[in-house]
Amino acid sequence: MIEVEHLSKVYGSTPAIEDVTFAVEPGEILGFLGPNGAGKTTTMRILSGYLPASAGTAKVAGFEVHENSMAVRKHIGYLPETPPLYTDMTVEGFLHFVARIKGVNAGDRPNRVQTAIKRCNLTEKSQTLIRKLSKGYRQRVGIAQAIVHDPPAIILDEPTVGLDPRQIAEVRSLIKNLAGDHTVILSTHILPEVSMTCDRIAIINKGRVVATNTPENLMAQLTGGSGYELEVEGDAADIQSRLVIFLQGLPNVKLVEQAPSDVPEHHKLRVIAESGTELVGRDIAKTVVGAGVGLYEMRRSQATLEDVFLELTTEEKPLDAATDLESDGESEGEEAEPSAGEAA
Ligand SMILES: Nc1ncnc2c1ncn2[C@@H]1O[C@H](COP(=O)(O)OP(=O)(O)OP(=O)(O)O)[C@@H](O)[C@H]1O
């Protein structure tokens, strides 16, 4: 449904994205995750047909975004970071207006507008002027304008920014309900957002896609993934010379790390599994006891999405072959300012 190949964008002499490649399957929700300034908005604006790329291609529903930008706008719903709303219109009036400019037939418009209003829980506000709405309701109108023409692909740039926790939960469940019938790309730098909402994640850092995979696979591939955390009691020299060495000799153990502890004789260890393998907890417990060390506590630890994100965006360390990696790309392009009225 969405295919991006070797896409680059340069603003003046500043590269914003370089050689970005990924695909989104029909009905899938892809989380586009990256720190501030990573290039998420730039990629989304190119995909929506509002910004020309400097190099590479992007196709939505089979249409090349630059060559067929009008067709793309009909097949895509776009919610920019700041929804462009005509605040002197009522919710329903604005959605009729957007439906018209998106090419929905006059006969179909009332039905499409009512469907978008219902899906976004806007029924009680449908006759309210947009300027009188709270931020949460405005965001829902932003999503309603993105789906009113029933596009197969929807692109949402930071859809929950500035919302309160209840509104965030509502917007997330709305997005989940859109999947299946629609292909969704959701940009965010909020980690729980992607793990709760998305089927797959593309992590972008400094303009490059550094990983694309399911959240589970990313966590499984992470170096220093799953393992056990131990709290043990004993002489520091014994821990170092015996226990750590014994633990390191167990099958599938990649590394044994020692964390600082405030209490003397009380030590915290982390036993980390080789990528893609599991450790046997019973063997670890036996090893501790066999080394003559007291075992206070032992619990499984799993790499979190935050670990993955920090590892990939702090050091730009690529994952293994199951992850899409991008190579260098060169491009040139023009300066572009965000255009007004992107939704419309
Ligand atoms: N109109 C512009 N002119 C010049 N440089 C720009 C322009 N828009 C973005 N950039 C630069 O391009 C890079 C990518 O910006 P972009 O807005 O795409 O990142 P982002 O991942 O969406 O960030 P954020 O999460 O902060 O919105 C940044 O270095 C930014 O400063």
Protein model, in words:
The chain is an alpha/beta fold and 344 residues long. The protein folds into two domains: 2-220 and 307-314, Rossmann fold, CATH 3.40.50.300; 224-301, Ribosomal protein S6/Translation elongation factor EF1B (Alpha-Beta Plaits, 2-Layer Sandwich). It is 32% helix and 26% strand. It is built from eleven helices and 14 strands. The chain has helices at 40-47, 69-75, 91-101, 109-119, 135-147, 165-178, 191-197, 215-221, 236-248, 281-290, 305-314; strands at 2-11, 14-24, 29-33, 55-60, 63-64, 76-79, 153-157, 183-188, 200-205, 208-213, 227-233, 253-259, 266-273, 294-301. A six-stranded mixed sheet has the order 6-7-8-3-9-10, sandwiched between helices. Strands 2-1-4-5 form a four-stranded antiparallel sheet, covered by helices on one side. The model is unreliable at 316-344 (pLDDT under 50).
Write out key terms for the chains shown.
single chain; 344 residues; alpha/beta; Rossmann fold; Alpha-Beta Plaits; 2 domains; 6-stranded mixed beta sheet; 11 helices; 32% helix; disordered C terminus; binds adenosine-5'-triphosphate
Shape: elongated
**Helix/strand/pairing class, anyone?**
alpha/beta
Helix content: 25-40%
- Helix count, per DSSP? 11
Rg is: 25 Å
For the largest beta sheet, what order do the strands appear in spatially? Answer: 6-7-8-3-9-10
Tally of separate domains: 2
* CATH architecture descriptor text of the largest domain: 3-Layer(aba) Sandwich
Instruction: Name the bound molecules.
Output: adenosine-5'-triphosphate
The major sheet is characterized as: 6 strands, mixed
N- to C-terminal separation?
22 Å
Q: How many strand units?
A: 14
Beta-strand residue fraction? 25-35%
Order of helices and strands: EEEHEEHEHHHEHEHEEHEHEEHEH
Region (Disordered): 315-344
Domain ABC transporter: 2-231
GO molecular function, one term: ATP hydrolysis activity
Protein name: MFS transporter
